[in-house]
Every structure is written in C-alpha cells, then in structure tokens.
Amino acid sequence: MRSETAVLELELVVSEPQLGLARDVSLSLRLLPGDSLLIEVADAVSAAAFADLCIGLVPPRSGRVRFVGKDWRGLPDDYAAALRGRIGRVFGTGAWVPFLDVETGILLPLLHHTRRNRRELRLEAVALAREFGLPGLPVDRPLDVVEDDLDCAGLVRAFLGDPLLVLVEDCRNISLVRFPAVLNRVAAVGDRGGAVVWLARSPTTRNVSFPASRHFRLSGQGLASVRSLE
Q: Is there a contact between 167 and 39 (Cβ–Cβ < 8 Å)?
C-alpha cells in the first residue's frame, strides 16, 4: 500500500515578493503520491519563484514547505542536497552552465547529489535522450547546441535518476512531437509514488492536453482551483 505522506506540502506559506502575491496571502497545497498538478502562472518569474520555493532554495517568510515530510527550513545542507537529488526540474530559462558541455550539465546534478557513478548515469541518460528523440547526449557547449536539442536535454536532466518530484517551469518548450514520451515519463513518476507539478502560462493550457489530477491558477490572491481546462 502506498504511503500517504505528501510528496510536497505547502502549509500556510507566505512567500517572498518574487511570487507576486498580495501582502500576507498564504499558500497551502498537499501533493500526494501519483498526483500530477497543473498550475497556471502569470509569467516565467512566477514559475521560477514557485519552483525555488518548492525545493527549499528560497525559504518562506512564514509557514512550512515540506518534501516527503521533511521541512526544508533547518535541514543540514548535505541532507537537503541529498533530498534535492530526488527532484527533477525543467527550467524555463534552460539554466545551463555556459562553460560546461551539455552532457556534463545533464549528469552533474546527480553526480553531486547521489553516489551513482558517471558511467551508470550516462547510460541511463543516453536511453532517455533516445526516448525523447535525440540520437544521444549533446557533447557541445550550450551556445553551440540548437534550441530544440537543448530543450530535449533539459527533459533528460529532469527525468534522470527516477525522481520522486518533477517540476516543469514552462511547458511551451516541450514540442508536441515529444509530448507523448514526456507523458509516459510523467506516468512512470506517478507509478513509483512520485508527483509532477506543471507550471504553465494560461494560453499553453488551452493548446496541450495535460494529465492533471488537479488544476489551479496562481495569482496575487493565491492558489484558486480551476474546474476544467476550457
């Protein structure tokens, strides 16, 4: 039987200004194993700020953010880093280190946060790249890789290592051709008791069918439930 410990929980969280909330508006959210959550956001800044909040990079002014029952606030740095090794993230801006080749950029987060060796991770990454439509891992620096291949590499980085939580900041970077493979990976995350948060600007939700178990809109007044995607 699956544990009902929340994968991600926001409890009465009052955030920093980057999230665009009105003063003292709080956020509460409980993401259970198997959940796939769609959140409409106003812009890329709000998406990145929400993702940073979820993974404990930006602490809330008040309230609690928990990942698998652990409150990010007060965790030892090494323990928090190990927990972040269970989280995949598709960055809206790409977030590639310009002086590293893309292959290293894909592998580096898990090489830093887990004890798996590079050869094992690379084999898994190559298989993921082929699943998403690349012949292999890009070996050039980010500036020398075409945008579509970089977007694909970002998906490989996010889903590598069987993450328990995946945060997708901007679904517009996922091509429709690639989307079925991404949905298969989303389903795999849910099957192993994980969860996915899709952060999308409103027009995107009308153009792509999301496998969302719940749908919210984030505005200055907080999180509001949306009944349908229409």
A: no
pTM: predicted TM-score of the whole model, two decimal places: 0.91
CATH number of the domain that 148 lies in?
Answer: 3.40.50.300
1 found inside a domain: no
CA distance 93 to 82: 24
**pLDDT tens-place string over residues 117-132:** 888 999 999 999 999 9
- 230: in domain: no
Whether 216 contacts 58, CB under 8 Å? no
- Per the structure, how many domains does the chain have? 1
**207 or 104, which is more confident:** 104
User: Would 109 be classed as within a structural domain?
Assistant: yes
Does residue 133 fall inside a structural domain?
Answer: yes
Query: Residue 60 corresponds to which tokens in the numbers above?
Result: 């809330």
Element of type H or E holding 153: helix 147-159
Instruction: For residue 195, give its domain range.
Output: 8-225
Predicted local confidence at residue 94, as pLDDT: 80
Structure tokens at 207: 């153009």
SS3 130: helix
